[in-house]
Amino acid sequence: MPLKTGDEYVASIEALDLEANVLGEPSRGLAGHALVRPSLRAVAVTYDCAHDNEVGALFRVHSPLTGEQVNRFTHLHQSAADLVDKVLMQRHCGNRTGCCFQRCVGLDAANAVYSVTYECDRALGTGYHRRFRDYWAWVQREDLVVAGAMTDPKGDRGRRPSEQADPDLYLRVVDRQPDGVVVRGAKFHQTGMLNSHEIIVMPTLALRPGEEDWAVCFALPVDAPGVHYVLGRQASDTRKLEGDPVDVGNPTFGGQEVLTVFDDVFVPAERVFLDGEVDWSGPLVERFAAYHRQSYGGCKVGVGDVLIGATALIAEMNGVARASHVRDKLVEMIHLNETLFACGVACSARGLPTAAGNYLVDLLLANVCKLNVTRFPYEMARLATDVAGGLLGTLPAARELDDPEVGPYVRKYLAAAGGWDPLQRMKVLRLIENLVAGAGAVAYLIESMHGAGSPMAQRIMIGRQGDVAAKVELARKLLGIPPNNHS
Ligand code: SF4
User: Fold this and answer.
1) Res 485: pLDDT
2) Which of 131, 215, 289, 304 is 20 to 30 A from 268 via CA?
C-alpha cells in the first residue's frame, strides 16, 4: 500500500529487528535504542508529511512506474519542476527535524541507477534496466526506505582497487554463480542504514578495464545473511543515554551513520544492476553524486533555518537582539543559507531529461552547490557561536536546575533578558551546541564537508564542466585576437 504513515513505517522497522554492534555490544531492538530511535523518528517525518494537510501535496506525486501516488522520496523525477520540488521537500524536512532525515540517499541512488542501466543496456545489450524498473516499482508500492551505499573504505588511496594489500578494501564480486553473485567488502558512513528496509550498493569510483570485479551495483534487503552493522559514534552521543531532553540539544530527532560489512553475501541475479561493465561505473558515481550534491541545497538549508532561528532567539534572550552587529550577523547567516538554496534550485531548474526519461540536475551547478555547502555551514556555525556567547561551551547540566542546593544559584545566574526562563535559555543554547559541536554537527558540518564527495571532487567536476575554452573564445573574440594556430 503506497503512502505509509510514520507509525506504519516505525512498526515495519521494529518488525525487521536488525542486529548491530552499538558501543561495543551486539544489540537488537534497535528501533527502541536511545542512540537509534531519534533517527527513526526523523525518517518517520518523511512519511507523515505525505499525509499533512499543509505540505502533503509536495510529498505526494504520481508515479508513471506504478500508475499510483507515491511518496516523493521514492520518485523518479519526471521534470525540472520535480527536481525543484525535491529541494523544497528537503528544506521542509530539515525545518521539521533540525537534522539529517536520511531518506534522500536511496532516492538519489535510484534516479542514477535508472538512467545508467538504460544506457548500459542500450550500448551493451545487457538486461539491467527492466530488472531495476521492476525492483523500484516494488519499492514505490511498498513505500520503503532504501539506503544508498557508495563509499568504500579505500585503504591506501594512492592505489587502485586491485593494487590494495587487501582487495576487499573496495567492495567486489568474489564469485559468480548461475543465479547470482557473491560480494565481499564494506561501505562506510551509511546514512540511516539501521532504519532502512533495503540497500542499493554502487561502486565508489570510475573503474577501468581489468577492474570488472569492483564494477558492481545491486540491491539487498537489510537483513540479508552475511551483512553486518557497526553504528558510528557521534560527538556527545552518550547524552542520549542520559535521558535528559535538554542536554541532547535536539530533543526528538537525530541522524545515524553505520559501517556496513558484506561478508560473502549472495545477491540474486534479479537484484544485480551492473556486473563488470566498468565503463558505466563512472557515470553512475557522477550522477549519484550530482543528485546528492543537489540534495544538500535543500536539507542543509532547512537545518540552517533552524540554526538561524535559534541564533536570533538566543540573541533576544541575551538582550542583544537590537545590537547592529548582531542583526548584521543574522543577515549574513540568511545570505549564506539562501545562497545554498539558490544553488539547489538553480541546478534543479536547469535539469534535463536523460535517455531513460527521468531528469538529471545540471552537473556544473550541482557541484557549485555542494562546494558552497563545504564552506557556508561552517561560517554560519561560527556566527552562531559568536552570537550565542561562551555559555555555549560551559553551560551546566539541565538537571542542576533541580538540585536543592545549587539549583537556585543556577536559576539566579542564568537569568535572561525579557523575563525568559533560564530553562528556555538552556534549551536554545543546547540546540545551537548540538548543531555546531555536538551530535548534530556530524550532519551539519562534517557531512557538509565530505558527504556526497569531499571538496576536491567538486573542484574536479567544476573544472571539467566549466568549459574554460569557451570562455577564452569569448575574451578572444571581444578583443579581436585571432586564434593561435601555433599551439
Ligand atoms: Fe538527505 Fe541531507 Fe541526510 Fe543526505 S545529508 S540523507 S540529503 S538529509
Assistant:
1) 73
2) 289
Long-range CB pairs of 370-375 (<8 Å, 24+ gap) are 370/292, 370/293, 370/296, 370/452, 370/453, 370/458, 371/455, 371/458, 371/459, 371/462, 372/339, 372/340, 372/343, 373/293, 373/296, 373/297, 373/300, 373/340, 373/448, 374/448, 374/449, 374/454, 374/455, 374/458
For residue 484, the model assigns a pLDDT of: 81
Cα–Cα dist 106/195, whole Å: 12
Choose one of 39, 90, 299 to mutate for the ligand 1 pocket test, by most ligand atoms within 8 angstroms of C-beta.
299
Identify the pLDDT of residue 487: 60
Ligand 1 centroid from CA 93, angstroms: 10
Reply yes or no on whether 413 is catalytic: no
pTM: 0.97
Q: Is 225 left (phi over 0), alpha (psi -120 to 50) or beta?
A: beta
328-359 tens-digit pLDDT: 999 999 999 999 999 999 999 999 999 999 99
Place of cell 512498526: 11
Q: Are 174 and 121 in contact (CB under 8 A)?
A: no
Nearest CA residue ID for atom 1, ligand 1: 104
The pairs formed by 160-165 with CB atoms below 8 angstroms and a separation of 24 or more are 160/208, 160/211, 161/207, 161/211, 161/214, 162/210, 162/211, 162/214
Q: What is the mean pLDDT of residues 361-381?
A: 98
Q: What is the pLDDT of residues 435-458, one digit of tens each?
A: 999 999 999 999 999 999 999 999
